[in-house]
Amino acid sequence: MTTLNRKWALRFVALAQHIAEWSKDEATKVGAVVVGPDREIRATGYNGPPRGVRDTVARQTDRDVKLLYTVHAEDNAIDQAALIGVSLRGCTMYLSTLMPCAGCARSIIQAGITSVVVPKLDVPARWKESIGAGLTMFKEAGVEIFCLDAPVRVKRKRAKVSAKKAKKI
Ligand SMILES: [Zn+2]
Predict the structure, then answer these.
(1) Which residue in 21, 26, 40, 74 is the catalytic one?
(2) How many whole angstroms from 118 Cα to the centroid of ligand 1?
(3) CB burial class (10 A; 0-12, 13-18, 19+) of residue 140?
(4) Which of 98, 124, 140, 158 is least crowded, fewest Cβ atoms below 10 Å from its Cβ?
(5) How far does residue 2's CA lie from ligand 1's centre (Å)?
(6) How many CB atoms lie within 10 A of CB 14?
(7) Please, which residues bridge with residue 167 across strands?
(8) Of 111, 18, 101, whose CA–CA distance to 67 is shortest?
(9) How far is the CA of 100 from the centre of ligand 1 (A)?
């Protein structure tokens, strides 16, 4: 059971939101910060192409093509830690915007990260299935979800995903 301090959670989410701005993706900018138990930053990431891979206009503008060439912020943070040999076991991942997709949820679980903090629980309709699967895997694997905002808000054009286990900090 992880206990998080709201003041520090706000700081790390704000840092993730700052790092999100480093993404060249005009449509979606996501940032991630992975923090150890002593509040030490172990890895950061934002969405973009892998190192050395070109971000051409076609890869930026066609959404289906972009998804093939883009590493999500969460995966990028985990990959950065792997590159320099830093363990993320028992760490907390702070995100700039939404819950992780299913692919990033799998990576988070496998990296040993034990809690995830998001500013809000809104889910865009097109990500509902993926994020829903991620939440299911987090629940089964024991990864705790924390949210800075009030419980799930339902907005027009947005789907609601059950995250009843999410704890408000
Ligand atoms: Zn993802």
Answers:
(1) 74
(2) 13
(3) exposed
(4) 140
(5) 23
(6) 15
(7) 146
(8) 101
(9) 5
CA 159 distance to own-chain centroid: 18
Contact between 167 and 133 under an 8 Å Cβ cutoff? The reply is no
Our answer to whether residue 74 is catalytic in this structure is yes
Structure tokens at 133: 């699967």
Full-model pTM: 0.87
pLDDT, one tens digit per residue, over 45-97 is 999 999 999 988 888 888 888 889 999 999 999 999 999 999 999 999 999 99
Helix ranges, the chain (H): 6-20, 57-61, 63-69, 73-84, 102-111, 128-141
Cβ pair 19, 47 in contact under 8 A = no
96's tokens = 């700039």
Query: Is the Cα dihedral 84, 139, 135, 149 positive or negative?
Result: negative
